[in-house]
Design a protein that fits this description.
The complex is a heterodimer of chains A (120) and B (109).
Chain A (H helix, E strand, L loop, with lengths): L2 E5 L2 E3 L5 E8 L8 E6 L5 E7 L5 E3 L7 E6 L4 E6 L8 E10 L4 E6 L3 E5 L2
Parallel strand pairs in A: 2-11
Antiparallel strand pairs in A: 1-3, 3-8, 4-5, 4-9, 5-6, 7-8, 9-10, 9-11
Chain B lengths: L3 E4 L2 E4 L5 E7 L7 E6 L6 E5 L3 E2 L7 E6 L2 E6 L8 E10 L3 E4 L3 E5 L1
Parallel strand pairs in B: 2-11
Antiparallel strand pairs in B: 1-3, 3-8, 4-5, 4-9, 5-6, 7-8, 9-10, 9-11
Classes of the chains: A mainly beta (120), B mainly beta (109).
């Protein structure tokens, strides 16, 4: 079964750091573009970052310079290192697999999400 | 950046009725438009991509249309399991970014 399972969320103080993990099963992450998307409570979805199959990386302006996306092929996993966290980063963070569908990907497989709360 | 605007914010529909949701892009995105369904407490699910192609396992009552800046998602005969929030997403921007609309909640009338 194709599946994504996120972990690593929690409560962190402003200015702190957190590392999210996304473990994939049923497919090989290195063969796909992989993405992080977040959703604040009651709000819409916001794309955060992408790791291309070729190793290229992309970031939303809101997180560039603070977040780092990475991949570990041996563990078939995707990661998001989040530094200098702010209250506005509070959200459920989803990991998603990319599916080529035109100019770029759409997101065809999603994890269940992990909650990140930034508060003192 | 491309802004996606969905309307209406809330759509009240009875089971068996037709639901029509709209999405507008602030500039042309050709057919690089996807629709997602999200139920309360769940992750989003891909419904439509390429403006009109149903994703794997999506029932035929879901259809998408449009190109350029105007797009529509139609649910031909609403089922109880279709009450949810629906998001459109563009994937045409350069450099590589993705943006979502603010969502349309389909509720039971």
């Amino acid at each position: 079964e194709v599946q994504l399972v996120e972990s690593g969320g929690g409560l962190v103080q402003p200015g702190g750091s957190l590392r999210l993990s996304c473990a994939a099963s049923g497919f090989t992450v290195s063969s796909y573009d992989m993405h992080w998307v977040r959703q604040a409570t009651g709000k819409s979805l916001e794309w955060v970052s992408s790791f291309g199959a070729a190793g290229d990386t992309y970031y939303a302006d809101s997180v560039r310079g603070r977040f780092t996306i990475s991949r570990e092929n041996a563990k078939n996993s995707l990661y998001l290192q989040m530094n200098s966290l702010r209250a506005g980063d509070t959200a459920v963070y989803y990991c998603a697999r990319g599916k080529v569908a035109g100019t770029w990907d759409v997101f065809d497989i999603w994890g269940q999400g992990t909650m990140v709360t930034v508060s003192s | 950046d491309i802004v996606m605007t969905q309307s209406p914010a809330t759509l009240s529909v009875s089971p068996g009725e037709r639901a029509t949701l709209s999405c507008r892009a602030s500039q042309s995105i050709d057919t690089n438009l996807a629709w997602y369904q999200q139920k309360a407490g769940q992750a989003p699910r891909l419904l439509i991509y390429g403006a009109s192609t149903r994703a794997t396992g999506i029932p035929a009552r879901f259809s998408g249309s449009g190109s350029g800046t105007e797009f529509t998602l139609t649910i031909s005969s609403l089922q109880s399991e279709d009450f949810a929030v629906y998001y459109c997403q563009q994937y045409n921007n350069w450099p590589r970014t993705w943006t979502f609309g603010q969502g349309t909640k389909v509720e039971n009338k």
